[in-house]
Specification:
The chain is mainly alpha-helical and about 190 residues long. Helix content is about 80%, strand content about 0%. The protein has helices spanning about 5-25, 30-65, 70-90, 100-130, 130-145, 160-180.
């Protein structure tokens, strides 16, 4: 989290980080605490990433890219599906028969979303914005990720202004819960 660079470089670095975590999950032979820790780590990164995109990336897409409203709406729908999967994974025991299919569904959803962003949305945004605008968006994304929630909240608002107002408070509560439980420290 917080890689630096313009918004596209920042978000693509996040994508690679999550793909690496998915690779570690796929390589695991067991269940238990190690799998739970890695699923929690993936959840934290995906939630922070999604919240930041919803706060800053998609409003910029709406503003600068032709057809941006429908593009942003589609990406937010993708996030909603992923967040619901993350919520289910949060409640699923690692030894449960549901765990492996849920993880596969999550990996498939995220891979399709990443491919769509990197092949379609990011090139359109790069053409529509100046380098300074992309750099400013990268700074905003990094700040948003540092204050974002770390747990899935599928019923939380996903568009401004409500998401920008609520996310820091929810993020503070999530980080306090994480601190107390030790979640995300592995």
């Amino acid at each position: 989290m917080g890689h630096g660079g313009n918004v596209i470089d920042e978000l693509m670095s996040d994508h690679r980080e999550v793909e690496e975590m998915f690779g570690r999950i796929q390589a695991m032979s067991g269940q238990g605490r190690q799998l739970r820790d890695l699923v929690d780590q993936v959840t934290i990164e995906l939630v922070r990433h999604s919240v930041a995109e919803e706060q800053y990336l998609y409003p910029a897409v709406r503003q600068h890219v032709d057809g941006g409203d429908s593009l942003a709406d589609k990406e937010i729908e993708d996030h909603s599906r992923v967040e619901k999967l993350l919520k289910r994974l949060e409640k699923t025991d690692t030894g449960s028969a549901e765990m492996s299919p849920l993880l596969q569904q999550l990996m498939d959803e995220v891979a399709a979303h990443v491919q769509d962003e990197e092949n379609n949305l990011f090139p359109m945004l790069r053409r529509a914005c100046t380098e300074q605008q992309l750099d400013d968006l990268g700074d905003k994304i990094r700040r948003a990720k540092s204050m974002a929630p770390t747990r899935p909240h599928p019923s939380a608002p996903s568009t401004p202004p409500a998401n920008k107002l609520l996310a820091p408070g929810v993020g503070l509560v999530d980080r306090a819960r994480d601190f107390v439980t030790g979640r995300g420290k592995s």
